[in-house]
Amino acid sequence: MDILIVDDEASIRRATSLALEAAGHYVESAETGAVALRSLKESTFDLVLLDLYLGDENGLQILETIRREHPNVHVVMFTANATIPNAVEATRLGAVDFLVKPFSPDQLRLALKRITTLRTLERKVEELTTEVRRQAPTAEIVSQNPLMKRSVDVLFRAADTPSSILILGESGTGKTMIARAIHDRSAVRDKPFVTVSCPSLSRELLESDLFGHVKGAFTGALKDTWGKVKAADGGTLFLDEIGELPLEIQPKLLRLLQEREYERLGESTPRKANVRVIAATNRDLKQWSAEGRFREDLFYRLNVISAVMPPLRERPEDLMPYAEKFLKFFASEFGRKVRGFSSDAVKALRSHPWPGNVRELRNAIERAVILAEGDQITAHDLPEAGGHVGAGAGGASTAQVGARVSIEELEREHIRRIIASTSSLDEAAKVLDIDSATLYRKRKRYQMDAP
Ligand SMILES: Nc1ncnc2c1ncn2[C@@H]1O[C@H](COP(=O)(O)OP(=O)(O)OP(=O)(O)O)[C@@H](O)[C@H]1O
């Protein structure tokens, strides 16, 4: 944890710092409330150990300000003369614990253990809330396809080891989902699972997202921050679309994997990293490393355990079970009495190549459940019954300027054609006059494959 000690007694600050640093925490100290509040503005802390009497200052007032301005930071009060009214008031103002001075290292350890448990619970609640909000069908990785079964088996067998894992496969095949399932089966399942999306607006922003930065490291770096390597401490760092990781950052990731060390942007203090890395990509990284577009040493370091998530068109045995699972989920979600698929719908589903894979199928069924008029989904309810489901990936589009189509449909078609007529995504982004990260997001939203 990152801890700020606020006490006017230098000996207490020093002794507590030493004990906390020895336990692996990052510690800063402040001798007044004003210094503490400034530190909290400049850096991120998980916990503040705050003295009740700071010379003339009242620790309870500082506690109130901290809770108001930094509601995610936990505060433990400590004091030499604890009284019940003080303890009650501190609790009312949001302190999570009270330590009476002088406290032993064991008492300090116990207090930190309680905070760690509290933080884990808070994180779980947050994750579950996000999951519920996302309203996703349950993430079971069930498949009848032998290739997919083998991949899942390899990945789950490696789940409980610290080895790096590389998951390959087209967009929408479930790489993120399985990465999370691996984490949930690992020994660090109670620790954070943190995702870094490698396509980014700039190299600096991505590097800072990963490793953090210090104030002034680049234009706009107004205060010290910690990156996701730190946020994932003890848990899993999931690097999505690793193929897009700029060549300049690749040696830093290699160092993180090999030496478990990194530095924040603009700082030369090496920090210890304790994360398990899972990476995913829809690129042929082996080919890319042979061509010098991705560092070969990094590829081999990531590729300790790897598996391919086959595209949906290559696992036809999964199509209808998945479609039925999504149907059930969305019917219950929207309170619709839709129970199955008509034979023409099954035919349309089977003849579509699903370039957007499971994501596309899920979206198609969600839409069909909303549109279905009877108790069955018909071909007519499937997206673009006259468009792409049933017409094949390269089906003629009705999206033409002036036609009765939405701006989104026009945009999708325009992007598709530009990508098809250019030799790289960078070139396509240039023609479209948008940056590569925006193009990446649009492709994902419109379920487009790499060119
Ligand atoms: N086996 C599955 N069961 C249920 N839903 C699935 C399955 N596989 C994928 N999905 C759903 O498909 C969607 C895409 O999955 P996911 O984000 O894991 O794919 P991805 O390969 O990481 O895609 P991208 O490369 O674009 O990030 C999600 O909504 C996910 O819930």
From TrEMBL:
Lipoprotein as a keyword of this entry, yes or no, is no
Q: Name one GO molecular function term.
A: sequence-specific DNA binding
4-aspartylphosphate is found on 51
Q: Which SUPFAM superfamilies match?
A: CheY-like, Homeodomain-like, P-loop containing nucleoside triphosphate hydrolases
- Keyword terms: Activator, ATP-binding, DNA-binding, Nucleotide-binding, Phosphoprotein, Transcription, Transcription regulation
Q: Which Pfam families match?
A: AAA_lid_14, HTH_8, Response_reg, Sigma54_activat
- Residue ranges constituting the Response regulatory domain according to the UniProt record: 2-116
Asked whether the keyword Iron is assigned, the reply is no
**Sigma-54 factor interaction domain: which residues?**
141-370
Write down the SMART domains for this protein, in alphabetical order. AAA, REC
Name the InterPro entries for this protein.
AAA+_ATPase, AAA_lid_NorR, CheY-like_superfamily, Homeodomain-like_sf, HTH_Fis, P-loop_NTPase, Sig_transdc_resp-reg_receiver, Sigma_54_int
Q: Biological process GO annotation list?
A: phosphorelay signal transduction system; regulation of DNA-templated transcription
Q: What is this protein called?
A: Alginate biosynthesis transcriptional regulatory protein AlgB
**Which organism was this protein described from?**
Brevifollis gellanilyticus
